[in-house]
Specification:
Distance between the termini: 37 Å
Shape: globular
Number of strands: 7
Largest sheet: 7 strands, mixed
Helix content: 25-40%
Structural class: alpha/beta
Number of helices: 7
Radius of gyration: 17 Å
């Protein structure tokens, strides 16, 4: 296993993609060779697509594995998705958190949606380039969603009260995971409306060596 000599302050500086990838492999040591290969391919694929379309801030693409991939994978530290789990990634943008989680859980089914057609087309192609047969995409506004899903994924899409109103009707009530079905929402440390029933996880407790996560949260809304 890799050992890491850096402390909290060093991730404020740009880390080479190989060092970021090593950090990901450190926190997810049980990845299969195929999953390691898929994650290693994300950087060149996203760099190429980002040159054509601003999926990720061009000032942030160099931090892909820490600020986007590992951020998405924090959800997997809270719940492990069972085979056949249906998940909806709302406002997926560049494919986060859906694409990294689809690599990690190849037997779960991820539907990634966004209202911007060119982003959805890019994410659809990225999924295919990564060999992800468990990802589907759709151009649709969140308030027009239909179908039923066990978990709804989101990352700083909208005010959480509004997001909850958009998606609560598509969450299936039957549960088979260690946590109840609901919304898994990645956000900063801004206040949450107290009327929402929720559990909040501080991501710095999950990734203690990485300063980027010191003010990041995962909110589980039931």
């Amino acid at each position: 296993m890799c050992t890491f000599a850096y402390s909290h302050r060093f991730d404020r500086l740009p880390l080479a993609p190989s060092a970021q990838l090593a950090t990901l492999f450190h926190y997810f040591a049980q990845l299969t060779p195929q999953q390691r290969h898929q994650f290693s391919q994300m950087e060149p694929i996203y760099t190429r697509w980002n040159a054509r379309l601003n999926l990720i801030s061009r000032q942030d693409i160099s931090n892909l594995y820490i600020r986007h991939v590992l951020h998405a994978l924090s959800i997997a530290k809270v719940v492990s998705f069972q085979p056949g789990t249906r998940l909806l990634d709302v406002g997926t943008g560049g494919g986060f958190p859906g694409i990294p989680l689809a690599i990690l859980f190849p037997q779960a089914r991820f539907h990634l949606i966004d209202s911007i057609a060119k982003k959805v087309k890019a994410v659809d192609n990225i999924g295919r380039e990564l060999g992800l047969s468990n990802v589907t995409t759709e151009v649709i506004r969140a308030e027009n969603i239909t179908g039923k899903y066990e978990f709804i994924l989101g990352r700083a899409v909208k005010n959480l009260i509004i997001f909850h109103a958009w998606v609560r009707h598509v969450i299936t009530p039957s549960a088979r995971h260690s946590i109840p079905n609901g919304i898994l929402y990645l956000k900063g440390n801004e206040p949450i409306d107290p009327i929402l029933p929720r559990n909040t996880y501080a991501l710095h407790d999950i990734f203690p060596t990485l300063n980027f996560f010191h003010d990041k949260q995962l909110v589980h809304v039931v």
